[in-house]
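Thanks for the sequence, V.! I ran DUF58 domain-containing protein right away. Repeating your input here for the record:
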Amino acid sequence: MQLFPTRTAAHLSIAAISVAGVGLVAREPAIVGWGGAMLLAMALARAVTLVSVSRIRAAGFEMLWSGPRRVVRTGRGSTIEIEAEVRNRDTLAARYVRLRPIASSQLQITIEPSAGEVMASGRLKVKVSVHAPRVGQHGVHGLALEVHGAPGLFEVPLTFANPFGVEVLPRPFAAWLPSPRGGRSKLLASSGRPGRARGEGSDLRELREHMPGDPFRRIAWKASARRGVLLVREFEREERDVVWVVLDASVELWAGPLGRAPLDLAIDEAASICTRYLSRGDRVGLAVYASTVRAFVPPDQGPAHGQKLAHLLVTATGTHDASRSDLDEADVAVRVLEHLRPLDVRGLSDLRRGDLDRLASRADAVRPRAPFAPPSPEGRSPRERMLRRYLAAYGIESPPRGEAERHESGFMLAEVLAQIVKSKPKPSVVHVVAPAPSEVAQEKPVMDALRRLARHSASITWSMPQFDPGLLPPWDPPTRADGSPSEEVADGARRATWEEAAGVAAEAVLVRTRVAVSRSEAVLRRLGVRVTKIRATTTKRPDAADPKAT
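Predicted structure:
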């Protein structure tokens, strides 16, 4: 158990040492005795605090979440309230000066009341407000209570390890999944609203230029003679669409403040497309790729399929895999060790330092108690996979890799589109939510795949991610590994200098990004691809000056 002196205790200790020093210099035993008595009193106060807090812990000081559920669902950008209860089974009241959450850094949490007193043999209701600016499976690992002992001169942090899961869905799915589908709504959903697609039918859709593979019976000879260009008739028929949504989840798209990164907005855009077509009764498939194919789900329809797509948008874009994470095996082991210690019966006291095999085995034994049950992430060894799976199961964040993977993802997009062309049923609508190919070598295979889709009468729409929201103020100041402010923003003058430099750098990146996006849009439009921009709907950031924020 660790004890920390309060400011009053620190001032008294400094005063006692000063008094004793003055007495030694003046050779006055009374003054030296006075200073020594003050130091002895501080030692006694520390012992009394240690005894009183040990008594509280032995009596059964605990924290419990209210309600039977250990996982809640919410939409990105929303705020939910979770109720907790702190119980004091001792016959003495316990006063705490601070209550803070131990949770994923992807969540922004406020606790009320943040300070107070738990009555003897009483209970204290605590409201935990969780703001979720980013999709994913995040964990609230417990609460840390800083308790004052009987003299009030020392603080003791008490940690309550009680994992709780928060699954953050994309905004459109958070609204679509709970909507009613029974009774009349179910009948309407089953009948759907058929769309008009290219194919053999009686309704003329358009006259277009002849392309290789078009049958001769569709050639409009009179119109071709008038215009001097070989034209064909494009008919349409009534049927449900077969829609594919293709999402680029490269790790560099996570760069930016929480809720304002390009991938934050791209996931919402992909979810919006999925829910729009699912509501019409169309079949929707999903492909998530980066340097490899992260998910490939054939088209289907219905609420159960919508649940599956929402889950994949949450999990397939994560960064727990070794190829997408900035943590190596040693870093993962440190995080597992810190989280597992309060959950283990023996507090890992019997675990030798550096014994990663035994740590992985112990973590895998505790994993069934976790709020989530993810598949095993990618790792370089079975031991590393077990450790990474522990992080994912308890919602412990894994920062994205610093190296970009756009070089590999550009070629992977061509492979995904080629696979969609070969899939059955044939796609009628393809939505690509991704940056355009960034290299000349990537453009040819991607454009060839787009041409093949067009020859199969598929309508192609390309949504470009938004980079502007992540480069506009306010910017998150740099921090150290422990979360404390960096030396660059240690004081007001340095903070002002850093903000000025950050503004100049952000403006330079914005100009370069806009030029690259404009060039990419021009290339896609020349191929007849409809290009749209993702609507920049970002989450509101809580006020950093709020005294209730923790």
